[in-house]
Structure prediction request, 369 residues.
Amino acid sequence: MASSVVLASWMVLILGLVIATSTTQVEAARAFFVFGDSLVDNGNNNYLATTARADAPPYGIDTPSRRPTGRFSNGKNIPDFISDALGSEPILPYLSPELKGEKLLVGANFASAGIGILNDTGIQFVNIIRMYKQFKYFEQYQVRLADLVGYDEAQRIVNDALVLITVGGNDFVNNYYLVPFSPRSRQFSLPDYVRYLISEYRNLLMRLHDLGARKVLVTGTGPLGCVPAELAMRSPSGECAPELQRAAGLFNPQLVQMINGLNEEYGANIFIAANTHQQADDFIRNPGKYGFTTSKIACCGQGPYNGLGLCTMLSNLCPNRDEYAFWDAFHPSEKASGIITEKILSGSSNFMSPMNLSTFLALDTTNRT
Prediction:
């Protein structure tokens, strides 16, 4: 009898520890939401009738399945590495039929390749999920989440979630500089266009706040003039295209300034800014420091710097993707995305403002304003 009581006591203790551990994991779990363009799209465009898709080989060549996933990468992209850091499974595209039930608790990716801050960006891709539609889907998601866990718990999940928004590069390469004398370049000088973009981006961030986002990671544009596509079209010498570099140089500091202003307005650190231009520029200028053999030539493509056209089965394909900073004409390789994410997580004030992501997430994460 005594041994039975002891055994029962141990079972109760073990059960209590299991319950406590499970509760801690649930409380520590953080949903993750992603908005933006092809740098963070993980497959939404696979469900759309558009040419802006990464649904054919050799995309995804370094994933476990070696099959394309809709990511514009040979493997993982930045959201995947952030999910790893959060200790959660990769989030699903919002349009995926698998996004239902308990999967909703993990979060969702609303990003769509080709879009920009402005609705007229990427018009050549026709059927893509522009920012206003991404936010509409976020509203739909919250209704679905509330049906699953109740309104109050749904609001808590959204308020405590990490949100990533990556948008802006296409407003230059697929709008202002898309063709000579583009409508936007005739409407605005470059400095005025950048100010207009920042104003519109501010509206997007305020809308995100209205929708419940309280921890938002905002990325700037990368070194636009240094991607293989721009080198192929604008720089036979291999030097970064100066006009696009000027655009990024104007845009990123104003983005940080705008974000700091919004934080002051809300009276809390709702937004942090990642200087992805500085982050990527570091390994573009010093590729060997990061184990790359080249930061000019894309792994997959054709033409000068493998920077022309799409990455397809007929393209040149490098044998070792980890030696290339760029996977295709516009997008970083899996290894480069990992490096950028490391700097987002733990980078100094040269890369992150007003703090890095690890510090941001370590703060009291319930800012309700």
About this structure: The beta strands are 32-36, 107-109, 162-166, 216-219, 271-274, 300-301, 316-317, 352-353.
